[in-house]
Amino acid sequence: MSEAGGNRPPLSTEARVQISYERAQAIAGAVCELWAIFKDPICAVDGAAFTHLTIQYSLCSGIIAAMGQGPYIQPILRQILDFEVGQFCLTEVDHGLDAAHLGQPRHPLCRVVFARTIVREQDHGVKPFLFTFMTGSLWLLPHRSGVNPVNHAFTSFNNVRLPRGALLGTIEKPADSHAAYIATISRLTIGMVALTSAIISQFALSCHIVARYSQRRMVHGSSRSLIPIISFQTQRIPILTALAQVFVLRAMRDATMINFSKPDLDPRVRHAIATLFKVTSRCGAQGDLLVISIRTSSSTFPEENYSFCEIGLASELLLGRYALLPTVYPDNLLARHEAGLISQLRAQLAGLGNHRSAEYNAVLLPEALPLVQAIGQRIAYDAARTAGIDTCLLDMYVATCVRQDESWYVESLGMTRRELRAMETRAVDALFPQLDKFLTLMDVEAYVTAPIVSAIDLDLRAGAPGLPQCGQRPTSPALPSLWVTSSKL
Predict the structure, then answer these.
(1) Most exposed: 32, 43, 404, 432, by fewest CB within 10 Å?
(2) Model confidence at 402: pLDDT above 90
(3) Which helix (H) or strand (E) holds 426?
(4) Planar angle of CA 61, 141, 160, nearest 5 degrees
């Protein structure tokens, strides 16, 4: 994050890392409930602080609280929650979704380490261990540019003797090693929801910034009078699309968090719901962020993780291994789209036979993302409509989703491209007069620091002492028309 005032020297990387830790600790102290932390827009202000919160509260302390036993657990949890110790190590390098997520090196290091457990030469599966040690090697990873740094690292150690009680959970060999492993790393699913929630908050901030800037930024119209750039439809559509998605995705987030609190929910369904939430938010929010966002974040997902989740979820649903809750609004366009895609793909699957065949890989796997996206969009719509989200926001969301797969609606429902464009135009015309109201209801203005939203703030930043000046005003009388006396965004 840039610092206010142009005459301050930039902070060192070490200082920025420390500030993010202190922010994470302050946020944790101010918000008492886990889900409330992840929903608060403050997490969008500093992605590094949010990353620390997720590691400490969701991953490290979550696994210890769920699987730890013995009198020593409570004191360790207290230290982790107070950010005195804590580190999370998940399996090995080059394992994709099982990559390590490590926190800032502290002294001492309290580590939750996942490792394969061998008992009398029998493989008892991957299990978590909790222990404190000072040995081993640590390699800090390069920091991402443009965001506050996080000291992620590789760590290695060899022949470390563990104390009695270091194993979290049972030593017994599981009957189903894969199911046991999925249950053991279930906190990653919660972390998936947490990270996605932060992305929605960042998306809301971006939407607010661009909307307010577009309202105040003036250009000369056809009559030479000044008009705001939001007068143009090409500016309104992405802003109103983002606005509608923020409200709909927030409703989806709330519904997802409620489902996670149901103890009898099938773990596979719980993971599917988290995956749908992540993919839907990524395809909606991050897709439009490419157009309108001027913020970046530490909390993003690798593309390989999306592909893995999409393929697995799509395959399991098409094979009927489990089912999601059906729509409560079957006549809605998004519900018809979801049902149509599932029906078409299952018909293709019946003709292919083995879901591990080369034909399945060639024909159906490329359809994984469109299918998962369609299911997620329907679930998001259902959640928003059930939550009472304003109709003009819902209509804008539906119009946006329909435009993402126009060919299906033309082929399957007989709609024309002109009708689809008219649907979007009606949604824009209904929503635009209420833009100010919904920007206020979005309730993120207090977290906006970008000076571009205000002409006054931009003037103050442009005139801040200490900013370097490039070039000098030309003195040659032969070039008077080339000098612009005043030019600001």
Answers:
(1) 32
(2) yes
(3) helix 417-431
(4) 55
